[in-house]
From TrEMBL:
Protein name: Pyrimidine-nucleoside phosphorylase
Span of domain Pyrimidine nucleoside phosphorylase C-terminal: 345-419
GO terms classed as biological process: pyrimidine nucleobase metabolic process; pyrimidine nucleoside metabolic process
PANTHER family: THYMIDINE PHOSPHORYLASE
MF GO annotations: 1,4-alpha-oligoglucan phosphorylase activity; thymidine phosphorylase activity
Physiological role: Catalyzes phosphorolysis of the pyrimidine nucleosides uridine, thymidine and 2'-deoxyuridine with the formation of the corresponding pyrimidine base and ribose-1-phosphate.
EC class (word): transferase
UniProt-listed Enzyme Commission number(s): 2.4.2.2
Superkingdom, taxonomy of origin: Bacteria
Organism: Sinanaerobacter chloroacetimidivorans
Length: 434
């Protein structure tokens, strides 16, 4: 078996065998297959595609390219939640406590942000003292004791994905359905949970911009998850404007806390309750999704989910007083308002543009090694459909570097479209796949 034959076979549109896929993944991860041959195969896959069996075998090979996490010592059915990436998406910090407060053990590994989407690990590091790295024993203890732990993903989980994704990123082969699916699901399946709830974003601020693409991705990921023995549910959700009002690390954690206090934006509250409802159902703490949703609502209204968040923060070395005193978060030293220059209604807020503006204000990174400003970000004051008068503040950009804040404000201003007629409201929850 050799790479030239495998590249030729896929170039001609033929189906690769399990052995051929294993040969590629193992050889490339180990450094025995050079970048130029791996890039040629990825391009052939990009143009010729993979069927469901090939996609499953690629996911499986990537899953087993490194360590797999054993969570068997954690009591109960462990449920993971994954978002395909969005702007202002802080749902992990809300749904984790909601589901855990209802008895579902949450043992989650999350990543950092890159580009215009934020990373949960970066958000958590805005909490003073919070540790995103704990050893395996402490991780298991925290979940058994508190019901919830979220840590940074180690390099030992699906190392093939890290190496293949880096090559995809520089060879224009990122947006292929099978390659996206194998990248996401290899990490999720290696992380050890018994069930997975997927939040598949759809719109101008998502990798899947069309409904058709998002549904196709959701269906494929659900099939792959089920084939691996995991109960898997995908929720297709809107990402044609940022979620909530806050975009940026400290700002998003504060909004997540507000949401658990019952004072959050309507969209982030509703999405969090839906996702938590499915997690509670997948964790078999509810016999139906509807029952799970109601349990999540009760955890929100009673304050038990907020207490769970405080316990989770304290368990990982953070200061639980941040749930009451937001001045404990990193504070910006400068800000710039984005002002409306006409009357009308907000017709569109381009989510990707807001995400990039937040990144450029200092809240995100273009390269993995970039340092971020945890105080930086954007606070929206208007959402799609809201009435606007000339001179109204549409958003405020925060940070510690005045030049970056000014640049972010200029970019954020271009994300808003003011129209004469009030637009129709987009559905937040578009489709459920299970």
């Amino acid at each position: 078996m050799n790479m030239v034959d495998i590249i030729y076979k896929k170039r001609e549109g033929q189906v690769l065998t399990k052995e051929e896929i294993d040969y590629f993944v193992t050889g490339y991860t180990d450094g025995n297959i050079p970048d130029y041959q791996a890039a040629a195969l990825l391009m052939a896959i990009y143009f010729r595609g993979m069927n469901k069996e090939e996609t499953y075998e690629l996911t499986r090979a990537m899953k087993y390219s490194g360590d797999t996490v054993d969570l068997s010592r954690i009591k109960g059915i462990k449920v993971d939640k994954h978002s395909t990436g969005g702007v202002g998406d802080k749902t992990t910090l809300i749904v984790g406590p909601l589901a855990a407060a209802c008895g579902v053990p949450i043992a989650k590994m999350s990543g950092r942000g890159l580009g215009f989407t934020g990373g949960t690990v970066d958000k958590m590091e805005a909490i003073p003292g919070f540790r995103t790295t704990v050893d395996a024993e402490d991780f298991i203890h925290l979940v058994n004791d508190i019901g919830l732990s979220v840590i940074g993903q180690t390099s030992h989980i699906a190392p093939a994905d890290k190496k293949i994704y880096a090559l995809r990123d520089v060879t224009a082969t990122v947006d292929n359905l099978s390659l996206i699916t194998s990248s996401i699901m290899s990490k999720k399946l290696a992380s050890g949970s018994d069930a997975i709830v997927l939040d598949v974003k759809c719109g101008n601020g998502a990798f899947m911009e069309s409904m058709e693409e998002a549904v196709e991705l959701g269906e494929l990921m659900v099939e792959i998850g089920k084939a691996d023995g995991k109960k898997t549910i995908a929720v297709i959700t809107d990402m044609n404007q940022p979620l909530g009002y806050a975009v940026g690390n400290s700002l998003e954690v504060m909004e997540a806390i507000d949401t658990l206090k019952g004072k959050g934006p309507a969209d982030i509250t509703e999405l969090s309750l839906v996702l938590a409802g499915y997690m509670i159902y997948a964790g078999e703490k509810a016999s139906t999704y509807e029952e799970g949703y109601k349990m999540a609502e009760e955890a929100l209204e009673s304050g038990s989910a907020l207490k769970k968040l405080a316990g989770f923060i304290e368990g990982q070395g953070g200061d639980p007083l941040v749930t009451e005193n937001y001045l404990l978060f990193p504070q910006p030293t400068c800000h710039q308002d984005v002002i409306a220059d006409r009357d009308g209604y907000i017709g569109e807020i381009e989510a990707k543009a807001i995400g990039l503006a937040s990144q450029h204000s200092g809240a995100g990174r273009a390269k993995k090694e970039d340092q971020i400003d945890l105080s930086a970000g954007i606070l929206l004051l208007k959402k799609v459909g809201d009435t606007v008068k000339t001179g109204d503040i549409l958003a405020t950009v925060y940070g510690r570097d005045s030049e970056k804040v000014m640049k972010g404000a200029e970019e954020a201003g271009r994300a808003f479209e003011v129209v004469e007629d009030r637009p129709e409201k987009e559905a937040l929850i578009k489709k459920i796949i299970k």
